[in-house]
Amino acid sequence: MVSNLSAGFFENFAKIFSEAKFMNMIWTGLRTTLIVSVGAAVLGLILGTLVAFVKIQPKTNKWMIIPNAVCDVYVTVIRGTPMALQLFIMAFVIFAIRGFPTEIIAIISFGINSGAYVSENIRAGILSVDKGQTEAGRALGVSSGRTLMRIVIPQGMKNVIPAIGNELIALIKETSIVSMIGMFDLTQAAKVIGSGQNLATYFAPMAVAAVFYLLIVYALTVCIKLIERRLRKSEKL
Q: Which of 79, 12, 15, 37 lies closest to 185, judged by CA?
């Protein structure tokens, strides 16, 4: 019985790669997954960096009281509610416009969600730098702004790279829910293939989708490790 199931699995697994109609669906879904992931990652990094810079400003700065409060609410709400709920609100409430591209909705939704987590990662990385670094810069007559930009932030970024890498990996996997708003991503492609009359099984197509997700995550992991290695070399120099 087990051997029959295994044989059927490998037969269907090979069939997906050998038949053009199945691979066309996989490539179409993969393209959507990559577009949403890359777009959301860029938006999340930009938004997260801006929010982090606002939140590390001294509380005594009266000009930053309102921006700080807005950023606190943003981070609390986004981190405290499910991603699926945020995606639904964006698609069916905020951007409930006929013909509005679902790719843009997904990128904005995931980018805003990712930005909240990235902001906390960056903020924690900057605050992890010893206060003596700031004091040393100020003692040498360097302004607080230049001390932050030239001394504190470069050191903080080295600490935060692994955390941001983990957030990007989580973001890629979270995009598997975009089918909830009618998008055809990699996971949805596997569902469609599995429900087809010619295959009639979900195990093999889901395994194929898993392989592609693993390849994407592995490539990202390698890139992050290369960045970390380069930063360590520059620190030794």
A: 37
Are the beta carbons of 60 and 50 closer than 8 angstroms? no
The per-residue pLDDT for range 36-86, each reduced to its tens digit, is 999 999 999 999 999 998 988 877 778 888 999 999 999 999 999 999 999
Q: If we measure between CA atoms, which residue out of 217, 219, 226, 212 comes closest to residue 27?
A: 212
Residue 8 dihedral angles phi and psi, to the nearest 5°: -65, -40
For the chain, state the CA radius of gyration.
22
Residues 48, 116: Cα–Cα separation, whole Å: 6
DSSP-assigned letter for residue 150? I
187: exposed, middle or buried (Cβ count in 10 Å: 0-12, 13-18, 19+): buried
Residues 110 and 171: beta-carbon distance below 8 Å? yes
Q: What is the pTM of this model?
A: 0.88
> Strand, helix or coil at 98?
coil
pLDDT given at position 207? 92
- Residue from 77, 160, 64 nearest 118 by CA: 160
Residue 19 near residue 27, CB atoms below 8 Å? no
Quote the CA–CA distance of 183 and 105 in Å, as a whole number: 11
1 pLDDT above the threshold of 50: no
Q: Which two tokens stand for residue 81?
A: 């509610």
For residue 160, how far is the Cα from the chain centroid? 15
- How far is it, in rounded angstroms, from Cα 25 to Cα 17? 11
Residue 15 C-alpha from the chain's centroid? 32
Is 60 exceeded by the pLDDT of residue 197? no
